[in-house]
Each structure stands twice: as structure tokens, then as C-alpha cells.
Amino acid sequence: MKAEVAVVGAGVIGALAAYELAKRGVEVVLLDAEKPGAATLASAGMLAPYPEGLSGELLEAGLFGLKTYPGLLAELKEKGHPVEASFAGTWVAALSLREKEAWEAQDPLPYPVRGALGARRFPGGFVHPKRLREALLGAFQALGGVYLRAEVEGVERGRVYWGEGDLRARAVLLCVGAWGGRFGLKVRPLKGEALLLEGEAPPGPLFAGEGYLLPREGGVYVGATSREGWGEGVDLFGLRWLADYAHERFPLLEGAAFRGVVWGYRPVGELFVGEVEEEIFAAVGHGRNGVLLAPWTAKRLLTLLGVEE
Predict the structure, then answer these.
(1) How many domains does the chain have?
(2) Do 214 and 235 fall into the same domain?
């Protein structure tokens, strides 16, 4: 099998890069192991560059993503792939006088928060990562892109290989998230767990203390724990922390019905988008801002490939 570009990893970043390449007439094969714990399938999908504390070039990259998403989602919807999203804003609730001063929290709260002294609204919103990935894959394949379920074992110049075969390609993009270490990339897994509840949600991402809420499929997404290593699933420790946080901090969720849990590995390390070997490129280390930074990352990868200026 041959292609112009092989993209390894079909999370939001890999799927978006593959879609943008296919739009420009590039022959692309997208490969994904579909392993449990992929960050995209559990991510909150927050578009919150200011509450996340981004600055300098990272803030510019985040703002680029925030600016890009409305047009991208409209494009996908026109192709028959609607994605849940909102750009109503993001909020930080101040839980102390120190936080109120630091955040200049003079705005009204968008949602009841126990102990809050005010809030600060920022530009931002959220997009449903799992639905975004599905939309990108559907649009990519409609353009003639090829998607393969395969656990890639190694890459070298011009070649990607796995147990059942290999693929020849002019260039390789590694968008492998927390699994970057297997390709010699400096990234490690940080497991995040989140709780899904029935009930009324805030209008957009709301940060309060060590966690946050946002809307998700007519209910509430409550996030998130942050734990080192490859431990799988949501355990009692994580579930208890999430339930206590939701119950104690948000009055509207005191009796909320349980909907489910999600978990995934955030790729933690120094953000890197560039060439690691001749014609082998990588995009790793996005932490919990992968969705926000995906448009900037895809644009940079296309520039490195010489497809876009």
C-alpha cells in the first residue's frame, strides 16, 4: 500500500490534519490503533485559552483555534456532520478574595456555585471531541481518504509498519498522543477521569476550584482528576472525588442522576510540532489543550509538509 502522507493517530489532531490534507488533494492514509484511553474519546473539549493560563505563542495558538472552529464546524455541518459546540464563553468562579482580585472577577455567576464571590467571563466555549472526531473521519473518507485500524509498531523514512503489513509514504505524521514514547518522543501519560450527570449545565465551561463543569449531550460533564501512569478505567478514588466535587460545589447537582464516566490519557510533555527525522513529523505534548490547539497544529503540519504557506 502506498500514499503521499501517512498519519499515525486519529484523535482530533490527526483526524483534522488528515482532513485538511485530503481537502487539498493530498493522498492520505490515516491509521489508528483504537486503543482504550484515547484522550479524544474522554476529553472535555474546552476552548478556554485564558482560564487555562496560556500565554505568549501558546495563547496565540489557542486564539487561532478559537477563531477557526466556528467556520470548521459550519463546513462539517454542511457536509452532513453536525457537532455539538458552543461559543458562549468560559467562566472562572472566584472562591476567595485572593482569587477574586487575581481574576478581576466582577462578572455575575452564570450558574450557582457554592462559596463563589463572583466570576470572570472570557471568550471561549467548547466542542464535543468525540463527535468532532467522528465528523472529521466521515468528511475525510468522503474525500477519498483511507482509514485503517492498525497498531503501528514503528516508522522510518518513507515507511510505516505494523504486524499485518506496512505502508509506503513520502511523509509520516505522528499524532499519537500519550503513546508518543513508543516512537521515542518525550511524552508521558496523565490519566484524567470525568463524570457525566443528568441535570442543568452552565452555558459554557465553568472553572471553580480544582475542577470544572460544561454542557455535554443535554447533561453535565464534571471534570477532572489528574493521575500519573497507565492505570486503566475510573476507580473508586476518582469516582468519589468527582462525585464529592459536584455535590459539594454546585447546588443544582446535589441530586443529579448518574449518566456515566469517561477516562483517557492526556499526553504530557513539552509541546512539540516539527520534524523529528527526515520526512517524519510529530505533534505531541498538548496536555489537556489538544482540542483547542488542533487547528493551529494542523496548520503548522501542513506548512511543514509544504502544502500550505
Answers:
(1) 2
(2) yes
